[in-house]
Amino acid sequence: MSQFDPFADFRMDGQVAIITGGAQNIGEAIAKTFAGAGAKVMIADLQGDKAEATAKALSEATGRDVRGIGCDVTNEADIQRCVAETVKAFGGVSTLVNNVGWGRAYADPLDIDPQEMLKSYELNTISGMRMTAACRPHLLAAKNPSITNSGSMVGVLPAFDFLPYSAAKAAMNHMMLGLAHYFAKKVRINTILIGTVLTPGYADAGLDAATQERLANPNNLTGRAGSPQDVANAFLWLASNAGSWVSGQTLQVAGGGTRVRLIPD
């Protein structure tokens, strides 16, 4: 009699994943975790050289086939080339992770150029729809196909200092919920609302050292900021067979929310 393996459903053998923005930080952790679980992975990143270098390192670390490709997810030709190269290399696509996203801080939200708002929607919202459309025929032909998106807690909480980014992420939440209903019984779609995960991107977004220090010690239920691996573990659950009964959900992976109380303890 074979011994029961409680982790078998978390395996991703036979799965083919595209991970946008996968060359570093959270995307890299997702790619490493998926490959370690048995998936074949294509890292799609604006920085093509870095995507290829990360893929090479993850292949060596996991013993799995991980590849990298330069891809601007706001460019339709790049998206089509990414999907075509993935299908050519691996025979299909069963798992799409819309991880790419970026935003910066603004002192006064009413001084924001409307073009900045539109650019943010193009990167943080519309790119997910375009990637989904390009992958659709391959997802529909796959076993346990899924789309999992990197959302943000600022997409559900007020964040006037990150207005373009937070508004675009809020739109993505609603858009992907609509697509989950459209793909019902065919493709599972979920979004992870990510809390504070300190990466070099925070400095790039314009947050000063004092703000980063406050974010590193949040007043949440776990008492700490998150790590890329904390987030990657949630992606593994939702993309693998372990999450096969989960769709149309926004899952908070954010340290348990705030401990701030209006009434003193």
TrEMBL record:
Record bears the keyword Disulfide bond: no
UniProt xrefs under PANTHER family: 5-KETO-D-GLUCONATE 5-REDUCTASE (PTHR43669), ALCOHOL DEHYDROGENASE, PUTATIVE (AFU_ORTHOLOGUE AFUA_3G03445)-RELATED (PTHR43669:SF3)
Keyword Oxidoreductase: yes
Descriptive protein name: SDR family oxidoreductase
Alphabetical list of Gene3D superfamilies matching this protein: NAD(P)-binding Rossmann-like Domain
Keywords from the UniProt entry: Oxidoreductase
PROSITE patterns (alphabetical): ADH_SHORT (PS00061)
Family of this protein: Belongs to the short-chain dehydrogenases/reductases (SDR) family.
